[in-house]
């Protein structure tokens, strides 16, 4: 087994414990990111990020790992839940810090107006501005952490829970990095559109290969996938005039999937398989 990278010291203890648990299951079963990709449907690059602690594995990947390793899923999913909450809290803290830094950057970039007397007074005002921004960030993040379970409690100015009509648009789930047109041409695993967020909208059998239209409603995108395939087999997904293709090239790969195409209705997407034997076929 190749030596793994050391986990970052910045990882939350619960996340670290969960990642180390994943590593132990993988190592005891003699698996690696490539074999995990073949057996779970989650890409090799995704498993490398999960096992290095650079991205939290979605719950679906955790269950798929348990099946591939022949081990009970319950201990893994039990450890995943607190790790997911810790990961979400860390993301909120990072987002608050970045927002503050962007505000400070904009302030610094503002052009100087006409000459004003009292340069030292301007410096003092600037210091007060920065302190105020950072104070807001600390209050927001601190209030979130004090809820205990990591679930923010939305409250209006009057102390009442806002009505649905006054609420902000729903934020995408943790780990989802694109939506709609921004997903076109992107990798579903890398963008967080797979796992629990994906369904098989259409499928067909071509020889011994299964070709599928995979669809994520959260991301608003579809892609093509072939499973039980062999080197030389390829899959193509088409939506209108847009199409993407993927081919199996490695001897031990059995799954290939195309980049995504944005589409509001998976019925508008078609996936086709072209096998090395010359046989072809499409969904729907």
How would the blueprint of this fold be written?
Blueprint: H1 13-28, H2 33-40, H3 44-52, H4 59-69, H5 74-109, H6 119-145, E1 199-206, E2 209-216, E3 221-227, E4 234-239, E5 242-247, E6 256-257, E7 261-262, E8 269-274, E9 280-282
Helix pairs in contact: 1-4, 1-5, 2-3, 5-6
Task: Note down, in words, how this protein is organized.
The protein is α+β, with helices and mostly antiparallel strands and about 280 residues long. A hairpin with a 5-residue loop joins strand 8 and strand 9 (about 280). The strands form two sheets. Strands 1, 2, 3, 6 and 7 form a five-stranded antiparallel β-sheet that branches. A four-stranded antiparallel β-sheet has the order 5-4-8-9, with no helix packed on it. The protein has helices at about 15-30, 35-40, 45-50, 60-70, 75-110, 120-145, and strands at about 200-205, 210-215, 220-225, 235-240, 240-245, 255, 260, 270-275, 280. Helix 1 (about 15-30) packs parallel to helix 4 (about 60-70) and helix 2 (about 35-40) crosses helix 3.
